[in-house]
Specification:
about 180 residues; mainly alpha; two-stranded antiparallel ribbon; two-stranded antiparallel sheet; 4 helices; about 50% helix; about 10% strand; disordered C terminus
Amino acid sequence: MNESVADLPSVLARYAAVVKGDLELIAKERERIRTDIAALQDQLRLLDDGQAWLEGLQNSMQPPPGAGTSADGVQEEGAPEAVSGEGEAGKEPVPSTAASPRTASGAPTLRDLIVDELRGRSQPCSAQDVAATLGRAHPGRRIKEPAMRNALESMVSQGRVRRVKRGSRVFYQVAGVNAAAKG
């Protein structure tokens, strides 16, 4: 037993050295991770700035509400619109008498499909609901929810569609339909 008591200081010294080494490794790893986080935050800031700039550019390239829509969702000059936007305050939008623009293949544009779907609903609905319904109705078309949301927001800015907020959720309906549902 005297030997084990005599070895106690050397065992304690070894453990102290291991603990000290582990603490140094942890400190180095924490510093490396902090450096990585700072670099990622810088990259995220650059991406956010780039996205904001590109969105501003995209918004500045939006044609006036009187232009039609092509297959890729880009407005074509001189093409008729399916539904005009809301006019003066208190007036209902006037549906266009011209035919809806079509793609080169004769298929309706995504925006036309959205307007038709929203017209067929009595209540406002979410972008997810519209995307799911159109996805089932048109299995040959790739209809993704982010593209749906972008198209809906673009049509809101044109006055073709109205945004209805209920709490934190956002719903959409054709402009001029069910005005009492606003809010």
